[in-house]
Amino acid sequence: MHRPRHLVLRSGALALALTATALSLLTQPPASATTPAPSPTAPRTAVPRVVVPGGISLTVTATDGTPVAGAAFTLTDLAGTTSATGTTGADGTLGFPELPAGVYHLRQTATGSASVQPGPDRDVVVPDGVTVPVTVTDPFTPAGLSVHLTDRARKPVPGAFIAVTSSTGKAFTLTTGPSGSAQVSLPVTARTGTIYTVTERSGPHGAPAHGKPVTVRAEPAGLIAITLTDTTPPPTTPPATPPTNEPTTPSPSAPVAAPVSGGQPTANPSGSAVGPAPSTSSTLAASAPHAQLAHTGADSTTWLAGTAGLLMIIGAGALSGVHYRRSHGKPVKRKE
Fold this sequence. Notes:
- There is one protein chain.
- The chain is an alpha+beta fold.
- The protein has helices at 5-27, 280-293, 300-328, and strands spanning 54-62, 72-76, 82-87, 93-99, 102-110, 122-126, 131-138, 143-150, 161-166, 171-175, 181-186, 194-202, 214-218, 223-229.
- Among the domains are: 54-138, Sandwich (Immunoglobulin-like), CATH 2.60.40; 143-229, Sandwich (Immunoglobulin-like), CATH 2.60.40.10; 261-265 and 274-328.
- The longest helix is centred in the last third of the chain and has 29 residues, at 300-328.
- InterPro entries: Ig-like_fold.
- The chain crosses the membrane at residues 303-324.
């Protein structure tokens, strides 16, 4: 039985296809020896980093807590590049928003008032998405004090010690110079001022002080000038020689009558009759006490008493001698 022609052609074509496929499989190298061709890689898309800015919230106050308006600040990064600047308002606040995370240096460049001084610099760390609060305290500007010390004659007193004490107990000690003056800078803790008491603690070379204390009010950036007076009494100069008691010259005593030739009394130059003239020995004895009294002081009374007793003894002896001679009838010879 013969097949149709078209079936024979289809069978031959199929046989040829199968034979070509088998030949291609036999001619291919083993799979293990083949190197796969690199396939192109798809480019990676960078995911953007989400950055949330941070900031600084600044508050500036004085020492007593009152706000400081007009304070200027500069903010720089670690490279020294200025990141922001600003000035505080009436409430003493200032904000630096939209700051990338990092470390910043904060510096105050102005205070806006002469009554306060700039606060210290500082570094501030700002994290992502965080506003950092910062408080700056500006101290009050100190006051200047000048003290001048004089004596009672308005002359300067150098070398004296002056004590300056505040109401809070803070104390300073000053020493006056050759012109009697001393200066010091006084801290101020309140906008209305701080009370101080100025007192002379001791005079030159440790001498006692007699000045009265003076109370002053030191205001921010103020200048105070006061004068203290040392009321120490001037030293008294002792006399060159101590005073002496002048001796008192006794009044001359009445002469003692002494016998003369014939027992007659003699007449004095004025013509009045007196007792007998004293003998030479009686005159010398009577004149001796006057020479001693001329240089005696408190002991003049003792000499006077002794002299009077001696004169009484001599006078009594002379009278006894005259009475004895008269009673025995012997004339008294007169000495030439």
